[in-house]
Design goal:
Layout lengths: L1 H20 L5 H25 L2 H4 L14 H12 L15 H14 L3 H14 L5 H31 L13 H23 L9 H15 L10 H12 L13 H14 L9 H8 L3 H11 L4 H18 L8 H7 L5 H12 L3 H10 L1
């Protein structure tokens, strides 16, 4: 019982941390994520109350957590949804996803209205059978499991789409590509797998021994949750433009003829003269300010005038800068990582990956080739 209570407390504390973090970072997304964590904590608390016999003292509280079982998956999905939404507005239609939870709540009303004697009799039967699950219970657990799998797949697809959309407005993905959320999702998937095993195969799924896994899982989830950064740290008006850019369907490239040639030359001149790509935090709105145009206009200019997205456009300049530095004998004292930072990258992994994609060899191999030449 103790480990169940500790596990529940850990999840509730993690929810508190997310709510506090949500006051300044990814507000609505963190509130949904906190709701998800709270619902998971309710599962552990429910087990603790059963094992400790607390429900025998307060039988009217039995089944009070059941509706939250069907709220776990949609709460997780809406957290993922709002992490990738620049505007982060609350959508009332999200409440439709909780219809199964509402139905369970309605179906539980008769049980809530039962007398104390009736509830105590039911709890005694439950305690005596311990390991046996009724067919109805197995169906409910199966539905919860399937619901969780479906919503996790939908969440994963949202994250993958976000990582592509981010390249339209940011020159770097480190910290904002929600890679931490992917690890968080994998942790949740593992806990879901253990829960399924516990329900189907475990001899006595209410004896509390499996709760150690959930307790450790709360630390794993917390470790990745606190690493998050603000995904779209822009002004409200910029967020509106960014959302329009993200939702805009890609157009067939028609070359430079579809853009203002003077504006195209202005951008090229700006890139050569002021080298804004050396700023590791460069974003589409920031470059638009330097250009004196709107974010949407700059996005169109880069997409149509250069047939690249913003991420590709900026990192191409960074790779050219790094090639110059790697070829310069005066820069031999700088490490590969230092070269990457000098060129505007903020991560060794991103630098190496991008360099190899565009040049065909790693920065180390490129430097060696220039040294031997």
């Amino acid at each position: 019982m103790l480990i169940n209570a500790i596990s529940a407390s850990s999840f509730f504390y993690l929810a508190f941390v997310l709510l506090v973090k949500g006051r300044t970072t990814n507000r609505l997304a963190n509130r949904w994520l906190a709701a998800f964590v709270i619902f998971v904590g309710f599962l552990q608390l429910d087990d603790a109350l059963i094992i400790s016999g607390t429900y025998f003292q307060y039988p009217h509280f039995y089944n009070v957590f059941d509706p939250f079982l069907f709220g776990i998956a949609p709460a997780f999905y809406w957290a993922a949804f709002h992490f990738v939404q620049p505007s982060r507005r609350f959508y009332w239609q999200s409440l439709w996803h909780f219809i199964p939870a509402y139905l369970i709540l309605l179906l539980s009303i008769p049980a809530f209205l039962e007398s104390k004697a009736e509830k105590l009799a039911f709890l005694k039967v439950l305690k005596e059978k311990e390991t046996v699950l009724e067919p109805v219970e197995m169906v409910v657990f199966a539905l919860i499991f399937v619901q969780c799998v479906v919503y996790m797949v939908l969440s994963y697809r949202r994250i993958l789409q976000h990582q592509q959309n981010l390249k339209k407005v940011s020159s770097t993905q480190d910290g904002t590509d929600l890679q931490w959320f992917n690890y968080f999702l994998k942790g949740v998937a593992l806990l879901l797998l253990f829960w399924g095993i516990e329900i189907i195969f475990y001899t006595n799924f209410l004896d509390g021994r499996m709760s150690l896994i959930y307790w450790l899982g709360s630390f794993y989830l917390g470790f990745y949750a606190i690493q998050q950064k603000e995904i779209y740290p822009f002004a409200p008006q910029e967020l509106v433009e960014i959302e329009a850019i993200i939702q805009e369907q890609p157009l067939a490239h028609s070359g430079a003829s579809s853009v203002d040639e003077a504006q195209r030359k202005q951008l090229l001149s700006l890139m050569e003269r002021e080298k804004p790509h050396l700023d590791s935090e460069l974003s589409l709105p920031k470059l638009a300010k330097l250009m004196g145009c709107s974010t949407h206009e700059l996005s169109h200019l880069i997409n149509q005038g250069f047939e690249r997205n913003f991420y590709q456009f900026i990192n191409n300049y960074r790779i050219e800068e790094s090639k110059k530095l790697l070829s310069d004998p005066k820069m031999e004292h700088l490490t590969i990582l230092a070269i990457g930072f000098e060129a505007g990258f903020n991560s060794k992994t991103t630098f190496n990956t991008t360099f190899k994609q565009l040049v065909g060899m790693s920065p180390v191999e490129f430097r060696k080739s220039k040294t031997m030449a």
